[in-house]
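RESIDUES AND SHAPES:
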Amino acid sequence: MAMVLLSSCASYSVTEQEVQQYLDKKTGFERSVGVKGLAHAKVKFEDVKVGIGRISDDRVNLEAKSFAKVSIYGQAPQEIELNVNFSAIPFYDKSEGAIFLKDLEVEKLDIEPNTLNLPSKQLLSPIVEIVGQFFLSQPVYRLDEKDFKQSVLKTARPELLIKNHSLVIQI
């Protein structure tokens, strides 16, 4: 009986829209980086757009929008907007019943205004890292234990694949 039950629930697809909705509920935070009075940035991370298997067949791409107020000793504070495109490999963590990302790579970085009077690499690197660490430490989707099909998959040893711009969890 259990085999019949598992074979009828062999996979579950998580669409880009579902990942987007999940992240919309979870994203949005503020952090500070640097040393106040010397070089400091207050980063506000708000918006993420998701693509599954669009840049590469085995990767999820995330476009993250961040705003930072940057202060450097001797200069007027400046406000910048960072648009960072990441790609990462999704994986399923059975103990969490959730999909996480690993091997995060920065694909593209746009800065507005791009005429900063800042030592940009030294200051922007920690800002990009803050946003990246968020994606590495938080799931991009968690299975719902109230949904029968998802709860059965959570207890099995599923495999995670990317098919037709969806994350497919299958036994």
